[in-house]
Design brief:
The protein is of the alpha/beta class. The chain has helices at about 20-55, 60-105, 170-185, 225-230, 240-255; strands spanning about 5, 115-120, 125-130, 135-140, 145, 150-155, 160, 195-200, 205-210, 220. About 45% of the residues lie in helices and about 20% in strands. The strands form three sheets. A five-stranded mixed beta sheet has the order 2-3-4-8-10. Strands 7-6-9 form a three-stranded mixed beta sheet, with no helix packed on it. The longest helix is centred in the N-terminal third of the chain and has 44 residues, at about 60-105.
Length: about 260
């Protein structure tokens, strides 16, 4: 994001269980381990250097250390400058996943069972939703929005444009690949057969869905998701839901 764009999320996501303890652990590690050990390491290097000068009666060499310091500071500044945009994008994506995940948790009252951050074979599925309308992979795509003008997501059934631009990575292919992987996992035993439907969610955006029907996947804004589920036919029995939930739960706990 820059001065001409803004986050599509209007509020901060709710805090997660144990988040305060996670932050406290991180602070303790930084305060009691990282900082002191870096300082101790610096002093150890300086001590070795001074003993080397003492033993060999070497004169001071400020030019060498000045050059090394200039190189180190330049490298650190270059690394920091280049990583900031990536960190901002990661933070926006993280907040978007939290928003969607917390929203999906609210669908439990409608008989849906959400799973989050499923670690697959070399990739992650943001969310999985299992309930009366079926099994869905839900991928969250959080993009910053332009300030001062309207922007939208356009989906034609095969390609997505974000404010008129194609994303660097193809989200349609990603969503379909995740759904295919989950289908293989749930149908591996052969006792039940589940069709897995891919869903792409763009929180905070207006989605212009021009995809022909019948659809093999859905692209939605977050507020459209409950209505979408209500309009879908009932595909799974309570027994099917219990089986798929238990099967995926065993996989997640076994990772």
């Amino acid at each position: 994001m820059n001065k001409s764009t803004r986050s599509p999320l209007r509020n901060n996501p709710l805090r997660n269980p144990g988040q305060g303890l996670d932050e406290h652990i991180r602070d303790l590690v930084t305060d009691y381990f990282v900082g002191p050990f870096l300082f101790a390491g610096f002093l150890a290097v300086m001590a070795v250097h001074e003993w080397w000068r003492y033993y060999f009666n070497a004169p001071p060499s400020p030019y060498l250390y000045t050059f090394a310091a200039i190189v180190a500071v330049t490298y650190a500044a270059y690394r920091g400058y280049n990583v900031f945009p990536h960190l901002r994008a990661l933070k926006l994506g993280r907040d978007g996943e939290k928003f969607v995940g917390q929203f999906l948790e609210g669908l439990r009252t409608q008989g849906y069972h959400p799973f989050h951050d499923i670690v697959a074979d070399g990739f992650n599925i943001d969310h999985v939703l299992i309930g009366p309308a079926g099994v869905f992979t839900v991928e969250t795509k959080t993009h910053s929005k332009p300030i001062g003008r309207d922007a939208q997501i356009v989906f034609d059934g095969e390609r997505i444009l974000v404010d008129g631009h194609a994303p660097d990575r193809n989200p349609v292919a990603q969503a379909r690949a995740g759904a295919a992987w989950l289908s293989g996992l749930l149908n591996g035993s052969g006792t039940h057969k589940f069709e897995v439907w891919p869903v792409l969610v763009y929180p905070g955006w207006f989605v212009n869905d021009r995809a022909p029907r019948p659809k093999s996947m859905w692209v939605l804004s977050l507020r459209e998701l409950p209505k979408f589920l209500e309009n879908e036919p009932t595909r799974l029995t309570p027994e099917d839901i219990a089986y798929a939930t238990a099967d995926l739960g065993r996989f997640v706990r076994g990772r």
